[in-house]
Amino acid sequence: MKPQDRIFLISGGVSGLGLATARSLHSAGAYVSLLDLNADSGAEVVQELGERAKFFETDVSDTDSIAAAVEGTVAWVKDTGKSIGGVVAGAGVGLPGLIIDKSNTPLALSSIDFVLNINLHGTLDLIRQTLPSITTNTPSGPDGERGVLIMIASSAAFEGQMGQVAYAASKGAVASLTLPLARDLSKYGIRAVTIAPSLFESNMTKVMGAKVRQGLERVMEFPKRAGQPEEFARLVMECVENQMLNGTVLRLDGAMRMPSKL
Ligand SMILES: NC(=O)c1ccc[n+]([C@@H]2O[C@H](COP(=O)([O-])OP(=O)(O)OC[C@H]3O[C@@H](n4cnc5c(N)ncnc54)[C@H](O)[C@@H]3O)[C@@H](O)[C@H]2O)c1
């Protein structure tokens, strides 16, 4: 699919990997609908991108909040006469915690729910609510494509570290749902692809302690550095444009495999 003149909903689209994706799609001529909690960054990004960018203050763990953002984007579809090309579900959080701590207290359920609600529930709900506006697109190209869904898992989907049970569960679930999602949607000409990055520069990783960061950099193979958000966005663009990418999880990690602890 060519991104030009199509609208993409991008959750977490005003920071890190989501923002780099928004910039790449926008510079390829797409319209970007940015869904994020952070209204200040939202206003800045819309000012930076100018035309063809809209921000909706959204909490992806709140189904009504997603509904309002999808409704606003659908109104934009009507105003512009463009169609929705797809979703990039980038909103995500990490909240480390051992399943049982030194004082024999189990991890709080609220902490597990917080992560699952944003990373898993929020991803599925955004896709679920946007789909009726994609299945009704006029099919395009020789294959009759209608749209593409791109999700973000993590290396933690495969080798979660100590303290990552909730995060790994959320990202493993996103990886697992990719194939059935593609299978459900194949009859509509809609693809589903998940990208699983290792360590990438972003606001999420900026707050890591020096020990954790150096530990991760030490186990990197090549290149021995964190990925740049633009390198992530390049793979998103390939996922949008390459129709043979479907129902799969693509690791983007420079061969890094996370050890149990750092
Ligand atoms: N950066 C990495 O090293 C890395 C590695 C693997 C996976 N990931 C995943 O990539 C995705 C993007 O992360 P990032 O590194 O760009 O982090 P980031 O913190 O820079 O961006 C995440 C964005 O999500 C938004 N967000 C958080 N909770 C939200 C909610 N409830 N509703 C709406 N928006 C919300 C934040 O406001 C922020 O703008 C996440 O899913 C993360 O788990 C990141």
TrEMBL record:
A GO MF term? oxidoreductase activity
By its UniProt entry, which SMART domains does this protein fall under?
Answer: PKS_KR (SM00822)
| Keywords, ordered alphabetically | NADP, Oxidoreductase
Q: Where is the Ketoreductase domain?
A: 6-203
Known Pfam families for this protein? adh_short
UniProt KW NADP keyword: yes
* Origin superkingdom: Eukaryota
InterPro entries, sorted: KR_dom, NAD(P)-bd_dom_sf, Sc_DH/Rdtase_CS, SDR_fam
Q: Which family does it belong to?
A: Belongs to the short-chain dehydrogenases/reductases (SDR) family.
- Put simply, this protein is called 3-hydroxyacyl-CoA dehydrogenase type-2
The organism encoding this protein is: Mytilinidion resinicola
